[in-house]
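call fold(seq) -> tokens
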Amino acid sequence: MKEVIYYEKENGAIPMKIFLTKMAHEQPGLLSKVYGKIKLSSFDLLGAGDVKYIKNGIFELRIRYGNNIGRMFYFHHQDNVVLLLDGFLKKDNKLKGSIIKRVEEYKYDYIKRAGKI
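ret:
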């Protein structure tokens, strides 16, 4: 089972927790599904419809609830860690390049500060 951790910016902000807090107020049903996916699978047993490879080792976990889609970005670090980068709520299937760029920056910042390069 993999350890699931949250990316923390240098200023102490945790983008995924900010997203989850916002979702708790706007979409509590979706939030419940998100936590269920994280806790039950630890990202080892997710189905092909749930996960999409984005690029540079970054994956997107999609969780549908009604007309909304919760999207969470993560990557596998070493063999036993999944690092949750950020998330957002989207009603359509398009993914903006600016979001991909942001989560890539988070990934590389984490690796750099963790001293793993």
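Residues 3 and 81 are 5 Å apart (CA to CA).
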